[in-house]
Specification:
There is one protein chain. The chain is α+β, with helices and mostly antiparallel strands and 401 residues long. It folds into four domains: 2-95, Histidine-containing Protein, Chain: A; 99-174, SH3 Domains (SH3 type barrels); 177-245, SH3 type barrels, CATH 2.30.30; 250-394, endopeptidase domain like (from Nostoc punctiforme) (endopeptidase fold (from Nostoc punctiforme), Alpha-Beta Complex). Helix content is 23%, strand content 34%. It has seven helices and 28 strands. It has helices at residues 2-41, 72-84, 168-176, 239-245, 250-258, 277-286, 296-299, and strands at residues 50-55, 63-69, 89-91, 94-95, 106-109, 113-117, 126-131, 135-142, 145-149, 155-159, 163-166, 179-182, 186-190, 199-204, 208-215, 218-222, 228-232, 236-238, 270-271, 274-275, 290-292, 304-306, 320-325, 334-343, 346-351, 353-358, 373-378, 389-391. Strands 22-27-23-24-25-26 form a six-stranded antiparallel beta sheet. A five-stranded antiparallel beta sheet has the order 10-9-8-5-11. Helix 1 (2-41) runs antiparallel to helix 2. It starts with a helix and ends in a 10-residue tail after the last strand. 37% of the residues are buried.
Length: 401
């Protein structure tokens, strides 16, 4: 009997050991294959989501695939390659938008400025910001957070309470409604049409809100969530009138940029409250009716290339200047900074604060990073002619077509 117990124990240990080795092999194969597929289909987390994990049942059977992705082809490829490697998969991975949202995949930013992060927790790295009334696509929700896509296609997480979630019919009603765009740097929404009215919330330049007419010196507005408030007429313009008045010329780009001189720098900021370098260029172009890509490395791939090999004579106001590290053996080019050319060898950029610097070494305001200048791109010649440079008036998330 004693020998039987010992033999059974040895067999059990051998089985457990083999099972452990098999699970370890499956996880190793999965990690390798997942990295290959991610690199192929979704290498940039800013614009494509592909997150997958596996669960291995203790009693054997199919491996459970969990996670979420915006790329259906990536998921199908992952499952196929896993099966080709002898790993049978039970597919529980969600293709976004999550069907559990039950069609409530539309939303608008409900506060003056909201912060988006790369994960559903306040400890995650800041990614970007959106302004009041910015339309968003909701992809999935978990634990009080929503993963959303911005109008330029940037994907990140935001607290769900910062949004007004909508079904498609409600969203289309918002698209067709009379709206205002804030043109003052800062403003206050009040609960009565007078300077003594209580503060309901704040607003910043570029924010969009529905309007229900005028009461004296104030617009009556409907904030996200349906609450009424009042906004000074001098601080906003009807959105359709503003769109019709736009003239995104080099001169107007420069004029808008200079309105932010001295405003503070903040990583991931895209509002007058504070902005990083690409958030600054994005904000300037937004207030001229043009939606740019979010980050400098993305903006640097758009527009027409302007030669700076023999100096700066070919540059015009409004051209974007990109700084960083040139490509070298084994290393790719890295764009880390962007500014707006304003003429006479000078450009304006957000670095500590929004300031004007010179590319000319003899100038008192010479920019110490001039030696890292990589390229210049002209945006205005490519508006609505390529992905990544889209006018608000032609963006389907802003107006019903």
């Amino acid at each position: 009997m004693k020998n039987f117990i010992i033999a059974s124990f040895v067999l059990l240990m051998a089985f457990s050991c083999n099972s452990g080795h098999k699970a370890e092999r499956i996880r190793s194969d999965f990690d390798r294959i997942f990295k290959e597929v991610k690199s192929e289909f979704a290498p940039d987390r800013r614009v494509k989501t592909f997150e997958a994990q596996i669960g291995i049942p203790e009693q054997g059977g199919k491996v459970i695939l969990r996670g979420s992705t915006t790329e259906r082809e990536a998921k199908d490829t992952l499952i196929k390659r896993l099966r080709n490697n002898g790993i049978e998969v039970l597919d529980s991975m969600v293709t976004l938008p999550d069907p559990a949202l039950d069609g409530k995949i539309f939303g608008i930013t409900a506060l003056s400025v909201i912060n988006l992060r790369y994960g559903p927790d306040f400890s995650n790295e800041p990614a970007t910001q959106t302004l009041l009334g910015t339309p968003l696509k909701i992809l999935e929700k978990t634990g009080g957070w929503s993963r959303v896509m911005t109008p330029e296609g940037y994907i990140a997480w935001v607290t769900s309470g910062s949004l007004e979630e909508m079904q498609e019919a409600q969203y289309e009603e918002w698209l067709l409604s009379p709206r205002l765009i804030i043109t003052a740097h800062y403003t206050i929404f009040r609960d009565a049409p007078s300077p003594g009215g209580g503060v309901v919330m704040d607003g910043v330049m570029g924010g969009i809100v529905q309007t229900r007419g005028i009461a004296g010196r104030y617009y009556k507005v409907i904030l996200p969530g349906g609450k009424s408030a009042y906004l000074l007429v001098q601080d906003a313009v009807p959105l359709d009138k503003w769109i019709a008045s736009l003239d995104p010329s080099p001169e107007n780009i420069v004029k808008t940029a200079k309105q932010f001189t001295g405003f503070p720098y903040m990583w991931a900021g895209t509002s007058p409250k504070a902005m990083d370098c690409s958030g600054f260029t994005k904000t300037v172009y937004l207030m001229n009716g043009i939606i740019l890509e979010r980050d400098a490395s993305q903006q640097g791939l758009t527009g027409d290339s302007i030669s700076i090999a023999n100096g700066f004579d070919s540059l015009r106001g409004g051209d974007l200047l990109f700084f960083g590290t040139k490509a070298s053996e084994g290393k790719k080019e890295r764009i880390s900074h962007v500014g707006i050319y304003i003429g006479s060898g000078e450009f304006i950029h957000s670095s500590t604060s929004v300031r004007i610097s010179s590319l000319l070494p003899e100038a008192a305001n010479w920019y110490e990073g001039t030696g890292r200048l990589l390229r210049a791109r002209r945006i205005l010649t490519r508006t609505d002619a390529e992905e990544g440079i889209v006018s608000i008036k032609n963006h389907p998330w802003y107006f019903k077509r």
